[in-house]
Design a protein that fits this description.
The structure holds 5 protein chains of 5 kinds.
Chain A lengths: L9 H17 L3 H21 L3 H26 L9 H24 L12 H13 L3 H22 L5
Chain D lengths: L1 H17 L7 E6 L11 E7 L2 E8 L7 H5 L8 H7 L4 H16 L5 H29 L4 H21 L8 E2 L2 E2 L5 H26 L2 H7 L7 H7 L4 H4 L7 H4 L20 H25 L19 E9 L2 E9 L7 E5 L1 H7 L1 H4 L5 H11 L3 H5 L1
Helix pairs in contact in D: 3-4, 4-5, 5-6, 5-12, 5-15, 6-7, 7-12, 12-15
Chain E lengths: L2 H21 L3 H25 L5 H32 L13
Helix pairs in contact in E: 1-2, 2-3
The chains are: A mainly alpha, B alpha+beta, C mainly alpha, D alpha+beta, E mainly alpha.
């Protein structure tokens, strides 16, 4: 198989991703939108598999699908508003213009660019995993530690902000 | 011991004690796993009914008469708190005592309190051994208690009538004897023979 | 790796999916029977005896009966969620089973990060549970769903942490490698605390007594699946029993040495261990009362999480000191 | 505070736009009349915030059968079978209580032997009621197996009583002045064997349940009915004794021959579900003690007076007679107008008062606690509805 | 299926995310848009890591960071949503004009 190509079955996941994203953007019921997001995220996890990283696919499912989506669903439930109202037409147009414009511009950029594919021997997944582990603790150590601090702060912040004040 | 270490030991004691209590419980269920099941497989093995088992009432069949002795006194009908007994009685031709001609019990209403059995003057009521009656219609629980006595009842009435007739005859004979002193011993003997039958 | 799998043998993959479905069905039928029999014997009863030898076909008969039942949809149900929920609950289970090394050569997919993927897919099931609870438009179902999600978030953490200490020992997240590393001694001996934490977490993950609060029948009627009937209900049932099998498979792989064992062939050992663990979980269920929701949560956060963290750190320190 | 007022205005506007019900934070949940752990057909309307209970409204009357009204339309004897159906779990005690009340009214002397049999049967019935409660309470909080063990033991009692009375549940064993059937030596042997058996089983129950950490966690500090609440609502029986008040009608106003037996009144101080559990289990042991003494002392003799009264007209007047049922003080208030038919019979049933205390203890607990509290109070709905 | 297809997918995803961020009035809807955009970026990184460079390690590490940051961001954002809801009983951005100034 041509290393520059992945198997066409990946289009199933592309469809899943785009479809889920469309649902999540267009559905009025916000809970349904969150489940749409879940589908899109699962689709992306599938694409990650095709891009030779089962690890990131697993992480994607674990954190995004199992974590973030569930947290969102929880927030929707606790905030009890399912957004029954239509989006305002003006607002929609306002949103569509930059979105379409951006798509168009970037599409031009992508189409006009030529990417040189790598020719070297691609390392297998186990090697990549090992080097991810190594590099996280060497080259990217500062960012890694910073991220852990950010996460810790996020947890504390979330608790502080969301804590019910006793009157 | 400082407060923190005590707190720590308490924590450990709670966790380990809890674990131990769980294991103790599991041991009990495990022991029961190897004991014999106590259930009775009902349709395959029928239960032995207790000697005083209470069920729908039935009429006693007396040895000497081979039939019941319901005289339709209506005491059970009156005392029944569930109003489930219906009796009709009549004086059979040639007899002075009343006999039941209809005896219906609606077991669906009965509360097996036993008051009817208590009040029965002739002790002709008892509990039956019915325990597994099922039906789709409520009237299936209306028992006609006299069905099994019909034949015996006819025979009994016939006999009773004869007895009554004989008694009557003896009485008349005795009366006649009183009138006619000469024939008295013979008539008295005749009436005695009849009574001994 | 995945490209090759899908590129060359994706029909085979579909076929193995069918095999797994078949296995899960038979497994659930067997487990329901086993549970009925075991519970009966724990309670000094006989359990099913009529259909088939010792009632073995009773669950099959029940499944057939369920097929004939009316499918009820509550009037104000959120229909898309309500109908999708059983599928979402069951789907990850199928994928999950494919990841385990049943024998040395018997494995559907062998991924480098198999362990992470198992937990990742376990997380999807809760979304299904949630959809069921929300979609049913029933307060009991919704309460059950809320409980299920909160519980599963809480218990996933100690579960993953205890599994991580095993990966420290095995130096791999590849399930086949973890099993191979236990060819002499199972990790249960090195990780007794981790195994205990995993077992407790696993019982909680599968929503089984004493952690069955999302479907606590004495409180919430039937929890999140109160409104499901017929085959839809059966799918939830199937997923529950399949989940039991999966967490037991994980435990077997991580702590009991997978297919390793003397005399008998590997797959026999694997299934002996799996069903042994499942029986243990059934033993729990038929012995203990149910925890209260807040006790359940505080047990996770104040006992299991600290213990599993300590276990993980202890393992790391010991490994650093004793293994070069 | 202007900011707050403004925020409030926003929320007002919000709701008028959404057309929602007022703040959907709290909601009502109908628990019962059809619910797996509502004993009988009790309905609790819970007002909830999440899983926290703000208020509760017990709704009763789904099993009303007008027993008291029925009493006004039949003579004294005909009311007998009704009594054991008021509280079907301790029917024997109720049945005999009614007999004793009428006996007291008519001043009938009950033979010694009958008195002893009454005590044995009442205490057996009390144990069977407590065993059933034990099982269902555990079932409510999720333990299924103890339920079946308790039923196994209870089955022994039912068999013993069935052999004598002919019924398993709704006994109609008492008559004015005595009983319907005499007991034989087999009955006494069976009773002795049962006492021995249950004494051996109780440690198993303690290991399986009382010590269990999950069980204790579910019960400790849950649903505290303290002395004040208990007295204010007229709570009696094990619920009252669990709050530390050693009140037992068998001791306070001894009836029958209860003054001849040695037994303790178990009490606990905390008044929570665990205390109620402990009191009941201790009561099982005390009942065993009473049975043991009664079986040892039972004399020979008749079980009915020579001339049992079947039709009678008590003098006009009124009478209150109370016994200790398995759930608390069961009182019978009879008003006679001098006719064959009672003018009024009022039954003071313990569960009614015990349930009345629920709204005082339920708020600020959770749904799971509700189940544990209702279970630990041990209500029998037909007894409440009568 | 090659690089271009992945880039196109990611582009569509990003545009949809942007549309949601601007067009949605629901706070959680906006959060959904942000997540979509972050994922579009992740997908891009992965695609370049797979097709263009010889060692995909760096790309994958960056994606890991994105996932981590997204988790932190979601936690904070959702807690803010709850806090706002508690105070104002609404999580509609047009109702939050008071935040201005």
């Amino acid at each position: 198989m041509n290393p520059a190509e992945v198997h066409p079955t990946a289009f199933i996941f592309v469809g899943l991703t785009i479809g889920g994203a469309l649902l999540s953007v267009l559905l009025r019921n916000i809970l349904h939108a969150v489940f749409g997001l879940g589908i899109a995220l699962a689709g992306i996890a599938g694409l990650f598999l095709y891009l030779d990283s089962a690890f990131l696919a697993a992480m994607q499912v674990l954190i995004y699908v199992g974590g973030i989506s569930v947290a969102m669903v929880f927030a929707v439930m606790m905030a009890h508003t399912l957004g029954r109202r239509e989006l305002l037409v003006g607002r929609r147009l306002l949103a569509a213009i930059p979105a379409l414009g951006l798509t168009f511009t970037l599409a031009l950029v992508v189409l006009s660019s030529r990417f040189v594919g790598s020719t070297g021997v691609r390392p297998d997944e186990a090697t990549v995993l090992r080097s991810i582990g190594k590099q996280l603790l060497t080259e990217f150590n500062v960012a890694f530690e910073a991220l852990s601090v950010v996460l810790l702060l996020a947890i504390i912040g979330a608790i502080v902000v969301a804590k019910e004040r006793k009157h | 011991m400082t407060a923190t270490t005590r707190a720590k030991t308490n924590y450990l004691v709670t966790v380990l004690g809890g674990l131990f209590s769980l294991l103790a419980g599991m041991l009990i269920t495990l022991r029961n796993l190897f004991r014999r099941p106590v259930t009775e497989q009902y349709p395959k093995s029928k239960p032995a009914l207790s000697k005083n088992f209470r069920s729908a009432i039935a009429l006693v069949r007396f040895e000497e008469t081979q039939t019941h002795d319901c005289v339709a006194c209506m005491q059970c009908v009156q005392i029944c708190p569930s109003f489930c007994i219906a009796i009709e009685g009549d004086k059979p031709e040639g007899l002075k005592r009343k006999r039941a001609t209809e005896f219906h019990v609606d077991y669906a209403l009965c509360s097996v309190c036993g008051l009817c059995i208590d009040v029965c003057p002739t002790n002709t009521l008892k509990y039956s051994r019915v325990y597994d009656q099922v039906a789709y219609r409520r009237d299936a629980f209306v028992y006609d208690l006299l069905t099994e006595f019909r034949d015996a009842e006819v025979a009994y009435l016939e006999k009773a009538r004869q007895e009554a007739a004989a008694k009557e005859a003896a009485k008349q004979a005795a009366a006649a004897a009183r009138a006619n002193k000469d024939t008295a011993p013979a008539a008295a003997n005749a009436s005695k023979e009849l009574e001994n039958d | 790796m995945f490209n090759q799998l899908f590129g060359n043998i994706w029909l085979v993959t579909l076929a193995s999916g069918a095999v797994i479905m078949g296995f899960l069905t038979v497994n659930a039928l067997f487990l329901v029977w086993l549970e009925r029999k075991l519970s009966a014997r724990f309670q000094r009863r006989l359990g099913p005896t009529e259909v088939g030898f010792a009632g073995t076909l009773q669950t099959l008969a029940d499944a057939v009966k369920l097929l004939g039942k009316q499918l009820i949809t509550p009037r104000n149900a959120d229909k898309p969620l309500y109908h999708l929920a059983p599928v979402i609950v069951f789907m990850p289970v199928v994928v999950g089973v494919s990841l385990f090394p049943i024998d040395r050569q018997l494995m559907f997919v062998d991924l480098n990060v198999g362990l992470v993927l198992v937990f990742a897919f376990a997380g999807i099931g809760f979304i299904g549970i949630f959809m069921a609870g929300w979609g049913s438009n029933n307060k009991y179902a919704l309460l059950g769903a809320m409980r299920a999600v909160a519980q599963n978030i809480a218990y996933e953490i100690p579960l993953i942490l205890s599994a991580l200490s095993v990966t420290l020992l095995a130096r791999s997240m590849k399930l086949s490698a973890i099993v191979e590393a236990q060819s002499t001694l199972p990790y249960l001996l090195f990780q007794p605390l981790g195994a205990a934490i995993y077992l407790i977490g696993a019982v909680a993950e599968t929503n089984r007594a004493p952690f069955d609060i999302p479907e606590a029948e004495s409180e919430l009627v039937a929890g999140f699946h109160s409104e499901y009937s017929g085959m839809r209900f059966a799918v939830f049932f199937l997923a529950e029993y399949s989940n039991m099998a999966i967490v037991s498979m994980v435990a077997t792989t991580l702590f009991l040495g997978g297919y390793h064992g003397p005399w008998l062939p590997g797959y026999v050992w694997f299934f002996i261990k799996v069903y042994g663990l499942i029986s243990l979980m059934m033993w729990f269920r038929w012995t203990f009362p149910r925890l209260r929701f807040d006790q359940l949560m505080s047990f996770a956060w104040t006992v299991l999480v600290p213990l599993s963290l300590a276990n993980l750190m202890g393992t790391a320190v010991v490994l650093k000191v004793f293994r070069r | 505070m202007p900011t707050r007022a403004k925020a409030g205005a926003v929320s007002e506007r919000q709701h008028s736009k959404l057309g929602d019900a007022p703040l959907p934070e709290t909601y009502h949940l109908n628990m019962g009349p059809q619910h797996p752990s509502m004993h009988g057909v009790l309905r609790l309307v819970l007002h909830l915030d999440g899983e926290r209970i703000l208020d509760v409204d017990p709704v009763i009357g789904y099993a009303h059968r007008a027993h008291e009204k029925m009493a006004e339309h039949r003579n004294y004897l005909m009311f007998l079978p009704n009594t054991s159906r008021v509280d079907y779990l301790s029917g024997m005690i109720y049945n005999l209580a009614y007999c004793q009340a009428v006996e007291k009214m008519l001043e009938i002397e009950v033979p010694e032997r009958a008195e002893y049999i009454r005590v044995i049967c009442s205490e057996l019935n009390r144990i069977s009621s407590h065993l059933l409660w034990f099982g269902t309470f555990l079932l409510d909080i999720g333990g299924i197996t103890p339920f079946l063990y308790a039923f196994d033991d209870r089955e022994q009692i039912l068999e013993i009583l069935d052999r004598v009375t002919g019924s398993r549940l709704t006994y109609c064993y008492g008559r004015f002045g005595g009983l319907t059937e005499d007991v034989d030596t087999t009955f006494l042997d069976q009773t002795r064997a049962f006492v021995k058996r249950l004494r051996e089983r109780l440690p198993e129950y303690h290991a399986l349940v009382t010590g269990n950490v999950i069980f204790r966690g579910r019960c400790e500090g849950v649903g505290v009915i303290d002395q004040h609440v208990a007295l204010a609502y007229g709570v009696t029986g094990p619920c009252l004794r669990a709050a530390g008040i050693a009140f037992d009608v068998r001791r306070a106003e001894p009836y029958g021959i209860y003054d001849r037996f040695e037994f303790d009144i178990p009490t606990e101080q905390s008044g929570d579900a665990l205390a109620r559990y402990k009191v009941r289990v201790a009561e099982i042991e005390q009942s065993l003690r009473i049975i043991e003494q009664a079986v040892a002392q039972i004399p020979d003799g008749p079980i009915m007076p020579d001339k049992p009264k079947k039709r009678f007209k008590p003098a006009a007047g009124e009478l209150y007679f109370a016994v200790e049922s398995a759930r608390g003080q069961f009182g019978i208030y009879i008003v006679s107008d001098g006719s064959e038919i009672p003018f009024r019979i009022k039954l003071r049933t313990p569960s009614f008062s015990n349930l009345a205390a629920m709204p005082a203890v339920l708020p600020q607990t959770t749904i799971a606690d509700t189940i544990a509290i209702v279970g630990s109070i041990d209500v029998v709905i037909p007894e409440i509805d009568r | 299926m090659g690089l271009q297809a992945f880039l196109a997918t990611s582009l569509v995803l990003f545009a949809l995310g942007l549309y949601a961020v601007i067009g949605r009035r629901h706070l959680i809807g906006i959060l959904i848009g942000v997540e979509l955009m972050l994922n579009a970026a992740s997908l891009n990184f992965m695609a370049f890591g797979r097709f263009v460079v010889s060692d995909p390690t760096t790309a994958q590490i960056i994606v890991l960071f994105i996932i981590g940051l997204a988790a932190a961001e979601a936690a904070i954002a959702l807690s803010i949503v709850l806090a706002i809801y508690r105070q104002r009983r609404s999580i509609d951005v047009t109702d939050l004009e008071q935040l201005k100034g």
